[in-house]
């Protein structure tokens, strides 16, 4: 996949680029609804013998249009969004810089500059996609702005239990700790990536060494508590149990951010400085304060047993690590 970063004004003309069928959207999470929009573009491109393109925007439009509601966390940071879109078999990804000037473009200016001048012959988007200043352009009036020079296909809403599958619904699920619902809507477990750093090293002294992970991007992290997880390290998938929290048993003062510590099953290697991916599989319990180390050790043992049970169904196949070597 070729990634093209665009800032307004750009100098591309139709002759610079191949004819494409383009999927349009912000695509945070690249969830099942987004995948449907992109797959529709792919199917049309195959029929029309054209390349498949995706256009997304960075940073999040609300960070430009409504600074007071700027999202501090995203489901998929831009580099992960790029990786996920590439995995769907897209030929070209356009990442358009979302600025106040870009946001002020009229629907006609957007279509002329970012559809027609990029040699797009057919677009796909969700039923609620809008474009141009104040969102005055939409899939219904798109033909008038393209002057029928570009075809359009509107993808109907994809629902679960009468609720539209959306990035907003997924964010709500993650922030409430319902990582299983989030996985259903995403079509894969929600994951975060980070670097293994030095921590208190207390876990090793009580028989449960952990990988203290510092996130590489501002991902949405589930609320404090204990989770069954599958980690990815050096191409291997490793089952484990993860604690997100402030360690109230040992610390009186609350840190500014919770720590993310993963106990990897049947694993005992020094991995400081390595990148670790954490796939959130199931919430086990909330964080709690214990009356001493023995009580804590007893509960961690129970958490570990619960995680083993939760992860049994992944013994044969770990969907997020298709080429990984399994470690149990």
UniProtKB/TrEMBL annotation:
EC number, UniProt record: 2.7.1.26, 2.7.7.2
Pathway where this protein functions: Cofactor biosynthesis; FMN biosynthesis; FMN from riboflavin (ATP route): step 1/1; Cofactor biosynthesis; FAD biosynthesis; FAD from FMN: step 1/1
CDD domains associated with the record: FAD_synthetase_N (cd02064)
InterPro entries listed in its UniProt record: Cyt_trans-like (IPR004821), FAD_synthase (IPR015864), Riboflavin_kinase (IPR023468), Riboflavin_kinase_bac (IPR002606), Riboflavin_kinase_bac/euk (IPR015865), Riboflavin_kinase_dom_sf (IPR023465), Rossmann-like_a/b/a_fold (IPR014729)
Gene Ontology biological-process entries: FAD biosynthetic process; FMN biosynthetic process; riboflavin biosynthetic process
Keyword Phosphoprotein on entry: no
Record keywords, A-Z: ATP-binding, FAD, Flavoprotein, FMN, Kinase, Multifunctional enzyme, Nucleotide-binding, Nucleotidyltransferase, Transferase
Riboflavin kinase domain boundaries: 185-312
Presence of the UniProt keyword Flavoprotein in the record: yes
Catalytic reactions on record: FMN + ATP + H(+) = FAD + diphosphate; riboflavin + ATP = FMN + ADP + H(+)
A molecular function GO annotation: ATP binding
Record family assignment: Belongs to the ribF family.
Listed name of the protein: Riboflavin biosynthesis protein
Organism expressing this protein natively: Bacillus gobiensis
